[in-house]
Amino acid sequence: MNDTPTRPSTSVEDYVKVIYDLQERGTGPVTISGMAERLSVSNSSVSGMLRKLGDLGLVDHRRYGSVRLTEEGTKAALSVLRRHRLLETYLVAALGYSWDEVHDEAEILEHVVSDKFVDRIASYLGDPVVDPHGDPIPTSDGRVVERPSVLLSEAEEGVEGTVVRVNDTDPDLLRYLADIEIGIGMTVRVEERLPFAGSLRITVRSGPGGRGRDRSLGLVAAEALWIAPAES
């Protein structure tokens, strides 16, 4: 007799993962239109799936209201996110993938690998707490290590901090950031906000004592970067 719990379907896992990710990034309430844009589907498709997720007890959603995961929905999302982020980390650390290549690969693999396999990956890598993009990796018992951070796009002039997280959903953006040498662990200082130009003027350094490089960064890119501000 097989006592292994039945895993949700691929579509259910995709939806709860996206809802959690949108909640976690704190860019506002999770809406049907926001989910549809992220998943590249129609609003009606999202509405239909939300009804199914509601019947399964995974989401709380009222018509025209925002979408939130229930406790069970959150557990399901953290399980698939653990698989996804550990797979991304393994692909970079062990197989030499670049950070712009791993998201799509992990999207496929996360639905077919076993939790035992993922736990072996975690052990092999030394139980990392973040993936190559700085996203926190949930523990096997569903805990997430939170780190104080702010969106670079919201940082005031004069604020300096370390890049701790990058939105991994757009490979072209990741390649652009790599080309202009902005990545995890680098120090960024906001020199000037240029709201009418839709950009920031920043200084980037490889570390606290490194030589600074001036960069002009558009708000789309700045909205994909989180920094941990340096203590005063």
How would you sum up this structure, described in words?
The chain is α+β, with helices and mostly antiparallel strands and 232 residues long. Among the domains are: 10-72, Winged helix-like DNA-binding domain superfamily/Winged helix DNA-binding domain (Arc Repressor Mutant, subunit A, Orthogonal Bundle), CATH 1.10.10; 150-229, SH3 type barrels. It has helices spanning 10-24, 32-39, 43-55, 71-95, 102-109, 115-124, 171-179, 219-222; strands at 59-61, 67-69, 150-151, 160-166, 187-194, 199-205, 213-218, 225-229. The strands form two sheets. A six-stranded antiparallel beta sheet has the order 3-8-4-5-6-7. Strands 1-2 form a two-stranded antiparallel ribbon. Strand 5 (187-194) and strand 6 (199-205) form a beta hairpin. It starts with 9 loop residues before the first helix and ends with a strand. The model has no long low-confidence stretch (mean pLDDT 90).
